[in-house]
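Below: protein 1.
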Amino acid sequence: MLAPSPAPPESAGMSKAAFDRLEDHLKRRYIDAGRFPGTRLVVYRRGKIVHSTVQGFADVERKAPVRDDTIFRIYSMTKPITSVAFMMLLEEGRVALDEPVHQYIPEWKNLGVFQAGIAPAFLTRPPSRPMLIVDLLRHTSGLTYAFQQRSNVDAAYREMKIGEVEKAGTLQSMIDDLAKIPLEFSPGEAWNYSVSTDVIGYLVGKISGKPFEQFLKERIFNPLGMNDTDFFVPPEKAHRLAACYSADKGGITLQDDPATSSFLSPPSFISGGGGLCSTAADYLTFCRALLNGGELGGVRLIGPKTLALMTSNHLPGGRDLPEMSRSLFSEASYNGIGFGLGFSVTMNPAQTLIPGSAGEYAWGGAATTSFWVDPAEELITVFMTQVLPSSAYPVRRELRTMVYAAISDSNL
């Protein structure tokens, strides 16, 4: 899908001076200080790209600069794409949100809830209700992530290598292994960042009758022209893959060399929760389709009412993430933020203590990539870098503050 040509910020009610301050902030605080290798930032408003910049290096060791077409590991920014794919099947009447998960994964029918013990001798109790598909989409399933390191259930995930950054096994082997581990809590009782969206990817494949990665390519990537988005980087594009780094004592240490990265070959585990690589341009295309009510350039992914359902808060009782979260970590942790079907959702901007709009939806990735869509302001922001973990620095809060500070003509 052809991107719109860049336009002066002032033509869409935004300030160039404010964007200059933002870029200077990224350069001084993160790139010159050695905290980030480089950055890629795109801001889109009122149908125009009003800010598009690159700074620093995609590969510090080889002194390769970040370019407009640099390919990044987007990790959990895969989740919104997987969630939209699932909702496409829902629109076709092939599945419903209130169906029990064991209807599609029979071996999960008797999953218990953790009480005590260490794997493989867990003591469990029956859940208060079955896990529903909506629990997977909103992370109230009782599943977890290995890196939480909070309970014996997390430890069992680590033992079986479930949900790790470097993926192992296959989607089917993950489903089989999860059948052997109890839930951390009864579905619906809490919010816990988890492998739930990987399970959604598995269900997309099972319900559609074709491999999950094929479904994404045929129904989303190819129609939208997202030609640089995939679960691996082919040889002809390998030179565009950025290096990935770990935050280390105020600096960075190489974590994944793009010359030897596992992302250079098709993975055995197709992770709908965190497996995709993409470019800022491709992800902007996906976000533009969302901002436009689920359609772009004659290609409709989902209808506007389905998108409205996805971007509503689905946490029980209308609560926000801090009220319900069991996680030590997630890609959003602010007061006033709820969770929809694949996105965090801003409910009360005042409670977040940063500028924003009610109805803004967003998510991020483990290597500090992030995006948000603000329908009220007709605004999209896509930010790319490659530093693990995303919690190392408060760059997402700073980006929101400074991008919203650039608005000189608000729609509200």
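Below: protein 2.
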Amino acid sequence: MNSLRLAIGFMSILPVAPRDTPMQLASARAYFPLVGLILGGILAVLDLVLRPVLPALLLSTVLVTALIVLTRALHMDGFMDSCDALLGGFTRERRLEILKDPHVGAFAVIGVVALLLIQVTALADIPDHTRAFVLVLFPCLARWGILLSMDLFPYVRHQGLGTAFQSGRRAWQLALGFVTALAAGVLLVGVMGIVLMALASAVAWGLGWWASSLLGGVTGDIYGAINEVSEAAVLVLAVVVLSRSPLALQSPLVGLV
């Protein structure tokens, strides 16, 4: 239970992290997808409350902003730093230096504007009949991507927040995260949940491989970038699928209600 509370406290502003407990974050990472489900559930409730009073585009903007606030912009900050480092650096040393630089460069600004536009407009195009299920699911799959990248690629720094997730890694942590994300995908949007999960996994592998080729490994900022790009990719694919087959993301739970 402490590991779950640590995961929630680390990845969100929710005040549930246990006090006076060693930061055994390696075990907490197993619950990253579950934290995503919790965050998605909050978004779904907000959507239900605000949908009658806000137009679709404004509502989607509020929801994306709410997710950033709920996560203390942890992942968005990593995405911005990664844009500056991976696109603006020319040597491994310079890229790692940029990742530690608190200043924001042009690549970060351009990248975050493009990312937010994609996330907001994609979310606005999710139809009402499946909207709640997609809202709950997409943060879960993105955090599965973080967990997967932690096992696929070495952590490049000897010190840093991400090192806490490397010491004490166990196979059960990845397995639990996999089962959580897979079960959530299938229960919330049916068979297409497997496809969306595969996409999040591909994004995690692709960005992790690219970052490793330039940095020699990944960092906490790269984890944040994987999360943000995975969220956008899952939303975009959901829109594409629904535009061609409106019932493609059909939850088995609907038939049980």
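Residues 74 and 181 are 21 Å apart (CA to CA).
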